[in-house]
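In response to the reviewer comment on reproducibility (Comment 2.3), we provide here a single inverse folding case reported in full, input and output, so that an independent group could reproduce the run without further information from us. The structure tokens appear first.
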């Protein structure tokens, strides 16, 4: 498989004979891809739903034409409206003889600094993204419980539920809420054989998203991914199909990152002020906490040493401005070489300084 330019994965019958309901399925992104994948993975019937009537009927026709599945139905609905949610689930139950799999894809965001945000904008994003997912999940759980044959719900969260990004307080709060909802609802639903999990994608570029975010931001986000590119919508849909299938039978309440989250974590680690530069002979604890007046290590000495060596060999050298003087990187002869060899220069920010305080590093 070419990671930079992936080839489309053919269906493997993962959800053979199942019925599927997908919300927000008439756009250019993950929703329609999930519906397409569901057909390719052997679904017997699919209901597409979306708030946009025109695009929805076009999507139904397109899905039929592209996959050859005849049992494709459309129902207009806004996930933020309880009556629409009930009507949608009831419609899907009736025309497919029960919903086996619900894909809660609907969610929306805007970009706005929190200090400029009005209540309306905050509420709109929370209402569609978090409350909409809650409404769909709640009513589907009631229906699945009453039917007594189990089922699967797959929610669509976002890595922003974990990560911070400027201008995304509302969307990030909503997606963190979707993650929490997924975990808690899953515990309750397990009692009647319903599994609930979520995918957490990083970035999927499509024409609608390109209209709502700057090219510079999208390019920066792509560049931080391990493959230097956004995911294809179908790559997220693949993971949704795994969660919808019996292959993930032991999983519930889980949030599955569809991203290179690990690489972001390394990137964040690299900005830590407490990291020892390669070549440094500093032997103070890397992570430490204050205990009364003493600074004590949280890890045994040998672990600390191993972790430091691992980082020294696998990560680029970091130099925080002021690092030598204040935190105890090598001083005097060789200090410059030890702290800058082959690495980037990261200025000591206010955040780094406060982190030093939290971690109890002696300054
Ligand atoms: N695109 C990304 O980079 C990305 C990254 C992480 C998470 N997500 C999440 O994935 C999901 C799908 O996003 P996408 O960007 O792939 O677009 P998409 O094409 O899957 O969804 C867009 C569709 O949602 C519909 N919609 C909007 N509000 C609705 C509502 N209230 N009720 C019903 N339908 C509604 C729109 O009419 C549009 O057709 C969202 O929950 C989004 O937050 C997207």
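Designed residues, in position order:
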């Amino acid at each position: 498989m070419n990671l930079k330019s992936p080839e489309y994965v053919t269906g493997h019958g993962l959800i053979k004979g199942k019925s599927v309901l997908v919300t927000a399925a008439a756009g250019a992104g993950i929703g329609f891809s999930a519906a397409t994948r569901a057909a390719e993975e052997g679904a017997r019937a699919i209901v597409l739903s979306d708030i946009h009537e025109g695009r929805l009927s076009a999507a139904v026709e397109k899905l039929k034409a592209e996959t050859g599945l005849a049992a494709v139905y459309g129902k207009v609905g806004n996930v933020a409206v309880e009556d629409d949610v009930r009507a949608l689930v009831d419609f899907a139950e009736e025309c497919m003889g029960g919903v086996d799999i619900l894909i809660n894809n609907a969610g929306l965001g805007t970009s706005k600094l929190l200090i400029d945000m009005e209540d309306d904008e905050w509420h709109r994003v929370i209402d569609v993204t978090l409350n909409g997912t809650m409404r769909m999940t709640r009513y589907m759980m009631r229906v699945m419980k009453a039917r007594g044959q189990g089922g699967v719900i797959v929610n669509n969260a976002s890595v922003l539920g974990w990560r911070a990004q400027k201008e995304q307080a509302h969307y990030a709060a909503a997606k963190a809420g979707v993650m929490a909802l997924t975990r808690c609802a899953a515990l309750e639903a397990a009692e009647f054989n319903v599994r609930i999990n979520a995918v957490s994608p990083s970035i999927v570029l499509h024409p609608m998203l390109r209209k709502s975010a700057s090219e510079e931001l999208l390019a920066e986000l792509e560049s931080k991914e391990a493959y230097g590119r956004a995911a294809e919508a179908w790559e997220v849909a693949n993971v949704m199909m795994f969660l919808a299938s019996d292959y993930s039978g032991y999983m519930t309440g889980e949030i599955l990152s569809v991203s290179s989250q690990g690489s972001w974590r390394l990137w964040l680690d690299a900005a830590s002020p407490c990291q020892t530069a390669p070549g440094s002979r500093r032997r103070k604890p890397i992570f430490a906490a204050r205990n009364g007046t003493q600074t004590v290590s949280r890890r045994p000495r040998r672990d600390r040493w191993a972790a430091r060596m691992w980082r020294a060999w696998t990560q680029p050298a970091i130099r925080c401005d002021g690092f030598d003087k204040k935190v105890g990187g090598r001083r005097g002869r060789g200090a410059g070489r030890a702290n800058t060899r082959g690495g980037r220069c990261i200025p000591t920010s206010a955040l780094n300084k406060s982190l030093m305080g939290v971690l109890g590093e002696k300054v």
